[in-house]
Batch of 2 targets.
Target 1
Amino acid sequence: MRIQQVSTFSADDNYNIIIDCFNTMAAELASVETLRTDIIANVSHEMKTPLAVMQNYGTLLQAPDLPEEKRVEYAKAITDASRRLADMMTNILKLNRLENQQIYPNLTTFDLGEQLCESLLQYESVWERKNVEIETDIADGVNVCADTELLSLVWNNLFSNAFKFTEDGGKVMLTLTADEEYATVKIADTGCGMSAEVGAHIFEKFYQGDTSHATQGNGLGLALVKRVVDIMQGEIGVESAVGVGTTFTVKIRRVDDGPEEAR
Ligand code: ADP
């Protein structure tokens, strides 16, 4: 819907401003509606794959005289698919709560270097299995006043991607530096990297640039990361080159000014 501007009288300037406002409002409402429809379409699509896997393997499991090894394989496929479904629902709920501002940051002062190490250590079995080298350079005593739970969501997603998109024998690097005002975290990898076209969309919900790893995620991780960084009044940037690697840089304020909506 678009309302035509009438400019017969110069005194109509105010009228035209109102028309402009209406047109902007109509465009915004239309885009919110499109976004909502897109999300429903995406969620339904993403749910279909694991559900189909569960149905197929469930049927196979019913075959009589199934060898033990097949029974274990099919049961595992069902468990994996249901875990993916559960992860996706958890991410959707988190994103929904973050977007609807139902989460108010719970601020405490803590050592950011320690939190980063804890998050990195969760991937020890992955880096050992993939023989990925780890390099860290973490400044001592960098305290930040932030929401630990929300921030760990950021590091977990960035590390999870770094290990996922890095081939066996690659390298993942973590750096923490700080000045009075900001703490800067860099999580870099020597993985597959991404093109500028992919890089332009990575923070969008359900966007997956690298389809070869599509089943290992749902395209919600970086949308969550971006939302948390915004709530924390921080900044996130990415530098990447195809076949060379990717570096995510997150800058967060060391002292929080309070939640977004209070400003
Ligand atoms: P998912 O990992 O579930 O696909 P994300 O939202 O975490 O979703 O990431 C979106 C996309 O960004 C990925 O599909 C991938 O194309 C790209 N991406 C993210 N991190 C990296 C990385 N470290 N190296 C290469 N590509 C990445």
Target 2
Amino acid sequence: MSNRLRLGVNIDHVATIRNARGGLTPDPIRAALAAQAAGADGITAHLREDRRHIIDDDIAHLIGTIALPLNFEMAATEEMVALALKHRPHAACIVPERREERTTEGGLDAFGQHNHLKGLIDRLRDAGIRVSLFIEPDPRQIEAAMLLGAPVVEFHTGRYAHAEGQAQSDELARLTDAAALAAKNGIEPHAGHGLTFDNVQPVAAIPQLAELNIGHFLIGEAIFVGLDASVRKMRALMDEARG
Ligand code: PXP
């Protein structure tokens, strides 16, 4: 299917549960392999500065084990650039990171941080890593991504996911317009954050989107139905939305 929307499964929270006891289980690599078997098109992992979930060894093991492309989520720091250049993931998604946040709470300010991001993005791109910027669905941020030469943007769907009624429709319209604007300017749009079985379909139906990255809900649902069924159902809902 030519308009197939890719599903990237974020396995961070398998590592969150593992780290709660400091041992080896549940193993995020096993989760990545299960997601792969269930039809995921990619694996996403965020190596945070505080290593609260994914740790350095996980990235090395993922690269060495999975056949799927790895989307390495990273803050715009020298430490993370060095790790990306060492591991050479398929893609690097640059996210804002604040130590005290529970998750990535908003998009990257690509506009305000142009000078800081430019050299960093150039180095990743020169190493053959596909750079994406995790931004709000905001025309000013898309323009900034164009000036930075980012081939991909991922739109933060958190506002959409947490809104209701008219406010949610307004957020969906922002995402729809942003995806069209990015694609028109040669940038591949992705989206993610807070997506669930209940809210994924309107986003999946946005025709220009090429990939959704979904984690927390899928891992939580896996407690009840298993990761295979959780990923397969999300995959089916996305395919249905694409008609
Ligand atoms: N995309 C990015 C860039 C993220 O930072 C996250 C959260 O780690 C996700 C997607 C997935 O969000 P969620 O875990 O809410 O599905």
